[in-house]
Fold this sequence. Notes:
The complex is a heterodimer of chains A (515) and B (306). Chain A is of the alpha/beta class and 515 residues long. Chain A is 35% helix and 26% strand.
Amino acid sequence: MSLYEIRDMAIQIDGKQLVEGVNISVEAGKCTAIIGASGSGKSLSCLTPFGLTPGEAAGSIKLDGIDLLKANAHQKLKARSYLAGFVFQQPLTALTPHLTIGAQLKEAAAQAGPSALSRRELAQKLERVGLSRADERLDQFPHRLSGGERQRVMIAAAIAHQPKLLVADEPTSALDASLRGEIMTLLDELREEQGLAMLLVSHDLASIENHADHLIVMEEGRVVESGATVDLIARPHEDYTKRLMAATPRLDEPAPDLPATGDVLVGTKDVTVTFPKPGWRRGQIEAVVDASLTVRKGEALAVVGGSGSGKSTLGRAIAGIGPLTSGVISWRGEHLPERRDRNLAMRALIQPVFQDPVASLDPQWKLRDIISEPLKNLRPDINRQTREEMVFKALCDVELGEEYLDRTPASLSGGQAQRVAIARAIIAGPELLVLDEATSALDPLVGSSILQLLAELQRNKEISLILITHDIASARRICHRIAVLDEGHIVEMGEMESVIGNPQAVATQKLVAAS
Amino acid sequence: MLALVARRLITAIPTLLAIILASFFLMRLAPGGPFDGERPLPPETQAALQTAYGLDKPLWEQAWLYISRLAQGDFGPSLVYRDFTVSELVAQGLPISLTLGGLAIALALLIGVSAGLFAAVQAGKAADKTIMMLATVATALPTFVTGPALALLFGLWLGLLPVSGTGEGWSWLIMPVVALALPVSGAIAKLTRAGLATVLKQDHIRTARARGLPETKILFKHGLRPALVPVASYLGPAAAGLLTGAVVVETVFGLPGLGRYFVQGALNRDYPLVLGVVTLYAALIILFNLFADLIYGWLDPRMRDG
Lengths: 515, 306
């Protein structure tokens, strides 16, 4: 029998049935992964049996012989704290901000029973998950650590009491591509070393397929398909699984057919952006150093790098919505002044699209007002009637209908909201869009449909794109060329296919390996 | 942290100067003077008094003289309470005001935080709604209503506590402290409740829960500290107000605290007395805001790195 066995589980919240007929089993030393879009019930299915959601589960849920639904309070507590460990998605917020790493690790280890771990033993636990200067970190507060380091602390705490089951709810979604690989490898090692059973939740097939023995695909609260990972990837039966797999970009898929490009549209020469260091420390942080690049008419350039590499700062400088310390930005060979000195026509040429579509739209406004706002400001010559026609046309361009005009952002899904953000960006007739992680907050299926939309804009309107992302495989679907940033410097730049085929810089090799 | 304290203390000096100067000139704009009485003094006596206290000099010179004396720790003589210096008057009133204010803050924190905590645990239930309603009432009732009401009930009708003055022992403190603490405790209860409601939804609470900790431990060890950040930011100005601004309560209960001197000084145009009290108030407010900032850092270490 499996270590963890769920049979025919249903979950309700406030009388509403959100999950039903779910079967999950995880064996000791093996990994079962649940994948699905947000709202498919995958996290709910993993966390509810342990009382970590407001939901109520029914069915049969057995962990190491204990039926979690029939057990008394004492047994339940034992199952939760003694047998299972948990890793959550957001390393930024999942650790208590006012307790030191050491205090939290000690608390986690104490689940196995009262124990007096020495400082040395606590430090060893941090070393095991790949943290350097472990002793020093015991006294640090979580916010001093980077996202990847914090996730390692989360893992160390989750296994500190040597549980039999590790539940990892999207453990890598908040991390950039190269960190994802490292964290997944660490989890694999620990699983083998300690014979852990692992239940993994993810919306990203690509980042887990090499790490899970068994896959469960969920959609709208039901299991669509499940089976051994190898079989399921090779021969998916259900339509949803097939679509999910097609939507997951891979580096080994054939190179896309991209439209031809024209003359150089925008160029940067030695662009440098520095910020004063936070707090009272003296000195400057160099976010971008001497970045020179060009984008042709109709061309898409991927600006790729890990978090903190300066890619967004560079994009913002080009779009004129962020600071520029020194260097020149040119448009068709002519100098493009800084934002303050750009006239309306210049501003209309470059438009940004941001990562979080819902947060970047004013929740109080109707979509018709959101989409027409750039027109009112950038093209005061256009009269009301023409403006309304253009708003309608822009909605059609992003494949949304007239019925959306009077809706507000709150009623939109993430993908619809991003389409609205793109409609807002294209309405004033820009020649260049700067897309800052425009698909990373979206599920793979939705993200790939947005990429497809961008490809069509590129083809039909000859709009040039700067695609800022940490995901090379997605970028490859629409980008001609790639520039790789590492610590503010462009370390490699060239044709997409040749860079991926033969990456030179260490940062590029890492990113390619992680895809 | 030391750097924060040092920087705050240095910036406090120009702030204090600006407050002193503004008060100095505003007070002189008000009509009347310290020697106007119901029976006007003979003009020669007026003039002699003016010269004796330097009030005949140009305003700027007077201001300069005041500040340079202040820098040496001399608050000057009172113009109305003859034979007393302002320092002496403040030394009489300040201990009473500090005791009153300090005890009121402690009581308000005790009542407010426990009530807020209890309400947050009972969120949505009858106890939560009752506590929050009482907190609103407590915040809304002015001390000039609760003060006399308390005095009437416990002093006159039940005869348990002294109605006025600083009698023997500690019993005279109870009613003024309660009257002073009530509105503040209401606000603290609401802030604590709201802070906890936000914090208890956060991810790190789920992590603590996943560790199988008992709910009380989750609440006190993982939840309470970040939830008190809004309380701390309210408490800085509130504490300064409580320690200094107990004017109404001191008047109602007939206590010779600082607040009474302040009001009397203003009515009598006792310029040095008012300026002395204003300087003290301003210094206390600056000090308590600094305390609040230091408490932030303890409540949430992320703020130390600003």
